[in-house]
Each structure stands twice: as C-alpha cells, then as structure tokens.
Batch of 3 targets.
Target 1
Amino acid sequence: MEVMSPAKFVKVRIPEGVDLKEWSFYRPVLEADVLIDVPIAKDHGLARLTLAAKNLMGVIQNRPQLHRNLGQRIADITSLVRPQLTVVDAVRILVQNGPTGGSLDYVRRANTIIASHDIVAADAYATGLFGLKPQDIAYIVAGARMGLGTMDLASVKVVELSI
C-alpha cells in the first residue's frame, strides 16, 4: 500500500465537469491501468450517503474546499476518475451519525456486496439498503444526468445471489 504523498497530486482539467473544471488528483490513480472502487456503505451527514462515487473524494486534494454544491462536484470527479469495477461493501452499514458513527447501535447488518461496472447503478442499488431511493442522493442524480451510468434500476439486469 502506498502512502498518498502530497507531491504526487497534480492539478488536472475535468473536461466533462459541470461545476468543477479542474482540481488536484492523485496522479497514480489517474495513471492506473485498472481502478477498482471499494467503498463501505454508510450514512454521511452532508452527502446523505457515502457510496462509490462519494468514495472517490479520497483521490483528490483539499476535500474540505469541495463541499459547496457537493452532489454535482462528486459527479464531476467521477467523470474524470472512472473505476472499471465498483464493489460496494454493505455487509454492515452505518445508518446514522456518519461518517464517524459513535455507537455500534447505528450499525446494521445488510449482508450485501454490490458489484457493477456501472458506478451510478451500484450506488442507486445501495440506496435501497438505507430505505432511500436513487433520486434522494444528489451525486447519483447528477451522475446519471451526466451520462456516467444509470440510476434506473429497471433498465439494469440485477442478479442477486445468496451464498
């Protein structure tokens, strides 16, 4: 595992960005042959949920400066950093007081792993584990609007397996 050195962040243009036109990204992520995004599904006070697209904030610099128009800006980041595979860990989910939690009473077993090549669809599916709909999460709506994937789960082949 590599420590994310500040020297390895580089300011780049975000060609498809609606609100964010450039930002500093971790260069090794941008240069990776394959990117797999593995978020842990949890409640988040500002974004409502942390799922795959929100998890990509981990590859940028100056995250606190990003919080205005957060939903669109997360979608803008996703337009540049496009994982080939998204695997949402929802075995146990934090259902309130996220992202830091504070009590095991806020953790619920969902016993679910979501895997998809479509980051928007993976996030859209995960909202149901929290009793929400895809349209409740601004970055899912913005990502779908930008053509980064679909939030229309009726148009996606969903295969559920029990192990």
Note: The radius of gyration is 15 Å.
Target 2
Amino acid sequence: MAKVHAKADEIIDYVTGEAVPDIGAEANRQAVERFLVEEKGWRREQIRVDAPFELVIEGEPYAATLDLLVSCGGRMVMALKCCAGSLLSREREILAAARLAADYQIPYSVVSDGRDALVMDTRTGRHLGEGLAAIPAREEIERRLDDLRFEPLDAKRLRRQKLIFRSYDSMNVNVRRQSKRKTGNR
C-alpha cells in the first residue's frame, strides 16, 4: 500500500489507509477501527468503512451508509455506528440500519464512541453487553457462525424500520457525507 499523506484537516483512515476529513465523529471511528483490529482480532479486509446501501421509502430512493460493517464467512455479522455523545441516542438508528442493510438482519448492532459501546442483538433489540470488551471478537464469531441467525426482517416491520432509520440518519450532522456531496469525492 502506497503511503498516503493527509492534509492538515485530514487523518489517515486506520482500515483503508486513505485520507479522510477529520471532522464529526471521525476520531471516534478511528478508535473503534483500531480496537476492532488490534484488540478483537478482526482483519482490515473484513471491515468495510462507509458501507453504502440504498433503501426505497415511499417510492423514493434513499442512499445511506453504515459507518463500519464487519463480515465473517462471507456474511455481514456486525454493523457499527460511531458517534460522539450519547450512545443511547443512536441505538434505534443502528438497529434499524442493521435490519435493512442486507436481505437479512445483520446479527449484531453496535454503537460506540471509541471509549464505550452498546452491543445488541439486531433481531430482538436486546442488549447483549456494554463496554468495548462486549464487542464480539473475530474468533468468537468464527466459532458461533453456524449458530447465528441470518433472518430477513418481517415484512410487517419493514416500512416502520425504514422510516425510523431515515429519521435518525437525516438528522445526523454528517459533515463527511455532506462534504463528499459538495466535492463529488469518494
């Protein structure tokens, strides 16, 4: 990988090695990325940064991204929202995103500020743990992969989850996404 140099208002993304704007909750995301790789054993190639997905809501396309999407065994297993501020305020957003981003519900939903985390079962919304240590490690997921449930979201809940996600996502002060729209980059 060629060495990328960051400008004064950029940092080098830990997973991708690309220069990214150092705005919003980016420093928090970098802390989560580093923790996933160095402490939880995930490989960089198993982590997608700004993973795009699209929803159709009331006949209109809505483009969105997941901050981090972790895969194992060819399946998405964990969706992460990196934020600044209250983790509880982002809980419903990441649950809805993890229920909608694939043709199945991604088993684990995580919201983290880089120092703390909430880990949830996406299907039930039940809290599985709190703190960075509660984030599943690669080896743990590999052992349990055959036991994980990759079920589609019940059609009766689909519309509501789309509206919940869009409501939260559209309120995000996502300066990174806004700067990409303005410049047409990445």
Note: The chain has a mean pLDDT of 89.
Target 3
Amino acid sequence: MANEIARTLRKRMTQQEVKLWSALRTLKAQGYHFRRQAPIGPYIVDFISFADRIVIESDGGQHGLADQQERDRDAFLRRSGFNVLRFWNSDIDHSFNGVMETITNALQDPHPARYASHPPRKGEG
C-alpha cells in the first residue's frame, strides 16, 4: 500500500519538489544517493538518503499536517536515526542556493543536531 502511494506521489511532485529532486540527483557524482517519495515506517518522506541518514521535506500547503502531527513525524524519523531538514516552498523558489548549501553542509557534517529540523515560522526569519 505505501509503495503504491509513494509511486503516485512521485508522479504528482510539486514544482519545488521537482527542482529539489533535480539538484539532489546531481549529488550522486559526489557519492550521495537520494530516493524520492520513499516510505519509511508509517510515513512517506519527500527525499531520503538512507546511507547519510538525512530526510529532506519540502513544506507548503500540500501536506496539510497539523503542527503536532509534524512534530510526531519528525520525532519518529529522529528516533530512527535521521536528520530531518525542512524547507518552505518559498525558500526553494527564492533562496535555492541557500537551501542547497544547507543540504550539502548537513551531508558533510557528522553533527546533524546543529541544523534546524523545521523552517522558521512566519516572522521568525
């Protein structure tokens, strides 16, 4: 069931997810491998590198998750040993170089706790 949902989501990626996926695929030349819309536990994440233990989420209105559900999801992923990086769609649209810099820093940094697990809320940054 989860694999079928993931397959459908891969066909319905947002413009921002397509942009991010295109950039993440170029990192393969540096030895990083990402999967898109991948099931992990009860969730389907936007992008994941199992080897590097990083989950990347593109946040916009499409998820519709309440804050508590988002926190529960991120907590599950962290307990499973993943660093969760979340980016607002507007950041992907307008600050893409910064988004990619954050991702590449996280891939190279053995201390993932220094990266925010959720984008700032309106008015926070």
Note: The longest strand covers residues 43-49.
